[in-house]
Amino acid sequence: MANSTKGIIAVLIAVVxxxxxxxxxxxxxxxxxxxxxxxxxxxxxxxxxxxLIIKNRETNNLVKxxxxxxxxxxxxxxxxxxxxxxxxxxxxxxxxxxxxxxxIVNSAPLFILVLAVFYLAEKLxxxxxxxxxxxxIGMLLIVLPQExxxxxxxxxxxxxxxxxxxxxxxxxxxxxANKKISKKFSPLVLTLGAYVMATLLLIPTAFIFETxxxxxxxxxxxxxxxxxxxxFASGVAFLFWNYSIIxxxxxxxxxxxxxxxxxxxxxxxxxxxxxxxxxxxLGTIFVLGGIILTERKK
Length: 298
Hints:
By secondary structure, the protein is an all-alpha fold. The protein is built from 13 helices and no strands.
């Protein structure tokens, strides 16, 4: 089997895992409080990623990260895990559908572009301007309630979408912050560092707003969901993604990430019986079109 074929298979596995997390999280939220779910997922992810750190002999790099770059690592944990995972899970609990949640979270490149222009001094091209415009229109079509503007504050779906929009912004901040430190450490070390910091934030948050001890009374399905999110979504998919970019150009591998919201939408429709309207479709097309346009070099 050619290396490029192996890379494509690897990235597709990662995409399917990431796309499935929205529906699986939605199911888990039926029995697990949102912050507690994110905390449990983060603890499992920390354990799994630390095993990988030991296997790859990167323990010294992890110590160096916490010792010399604890501020930067805190920002990564706060924005990339605490806010991104936390707000996306909370948004699903409030009423957002898994499919549209995936579209909103994966609109992060649009926000990354805005931050990169102001904080990384990246050049703003015509494609990027048009892409941001299309993406903004698409977000309005998705986030605003279709019953009318007057139903904004009465709509649980709108509130859930708005919270998940915060998750996308959190991921954008994480991505920009990560770019400044990514040359000094491996993605594995940075990911574990972020999860450790996020876990330290999630522990008091969960105990203040929820009752985390509920996990001790959970059934097998709930625990399977926690382990799936902690091991597969946070670890295994990460390994397949890294494998894919070894055998494929990063730009080519990234194209497959556009499948995440599409697969999440179909998963939500077929397994959770979620509705997906023509307006939702139009908004999704605008968002994905905007992202593709902003990432074109010409």
